[in-house]
Amino acid sequence: MFGGVQREMRHHESALRRSFEKCKPDNTPDENDRIEIGPSQLAFDEWAALGLECPDMVALREYRLERVREQLRKRDYAGILLFDPLNHRYATDSTNMQLWITHNAARACFIATDGPVVMFDFHGCQHLSYHLPLVDEIRPMTTFFYFPGGSRCEEKADLFAAEIAELVTAHGGGNRQLAVDRIEIVGLRALERKNIRVMHDGMGLMETAREIKNHNEMKAMRCAVAACENALLEFEAAIEPGISENELWAHLHYSNAKRGGDWIETRLLSTGPRTNPWMSECGPRIIQEGDLVGLDTDLVGVYGYCVDMSRTWLAGDGKATAEQKQLFQVAYEHIMEDMDLLKPGLTFKELTFGGNQLAQKYRPQQYGVKYHGVGLCDEYPAIYYPESWEKSGYDGVLEPGMCLCVEAYIGEVGGREGVKLEDQVLITETGYELLTKFHHDPRLLG
After folding, report:
1. What pLDDT digit, counting tens, does each position of 268-311 carry?
2. What is the pLDDT of residue 446?
3. 226 φ/ψ angles, rounded to the nearest 5 degrees
């Protein structure tokens, strides 16, 4: 009923894709004019020099979509409706203005448990998914958020809900249970009027699907880490007294983008007294000789994989003070001890109450979590400090294939500076593998 023309166009593009004889090392078309985004030749050359194996993107996409459908079958749902662009990326590898789409619901993806994947895309953007064979159909999106909808939002939501109801009826086998990750309230009410039983755990379903990475996803993440670490070398070389925080941060942006990375989630770069307390975003401050320079990358890199590592440097050519070395040593020992705990079968609660115990003077400003999951972004789980267990903690078990970040912030209330450190790891069958191996400033590590 809906979108037949788009389906024919997509099949035509797929035929064109199959006609390419030459592929890049990641099994995507080696075609200069392709629409598909991806790593630059610089990134491929750097990975080859490091001996890294690229992911097979065809197989990676198939694995991730099957992970979603596995969760749908477990819950006995007819399908899932996705609005979050990171969930679009995970399930289909389709991208379109990802940051803009995070706050403008101009794109949606319907995935039937047993049936098609239908992408609803923004006006004039249907061609952006033609290259993806797992996307069965592409339709224009009927947007129902206020910016384009104005006083007609409810009317437009009803039109969109009619399309979703038609898909659920056609492919649900009588099952009207539909998971949704997030949706405008006007859209939720429209689906309910179509007798769709909207299941509230869509985001949890997707986080669960994204939790376990297979060998192919790990190839993509290792490539992303390598690209990030090469970008960090260029960032590090730009650290000098006289440069502003904003200008320094721009080096990381540029170095990520030129390798084919996507974006940076935060502006968590601060220097000197702005490092205490943590969480100050970079600004116009001019870096001074002897300042600490703290960075949390929060970098969404190549293939959309997040590289979330933190480092602290000393600006200039001088020596670190005793206080700076002490802060760094406490932070370093903290993440090393917490990392050494990691192995499959360990519970989140055991991680919360085990490992390094911070001195009381550092606890008021300790970081919000000891560990967190990571994939396409910061993901489930969040594993808290003991003080937060009663209010925020929840239990679970580490499994092989999970990726975690281990982090710490060390700075006293009223202190001049603070130190932020973080590393990214893979939980293996017997323990863990350190993924981020970027060096520490030897003047601070001592």
Report:
1. 999 999 999 999 999 999 999 999 999 999 999 999 999 999 99
2. 78
3. -60, -40
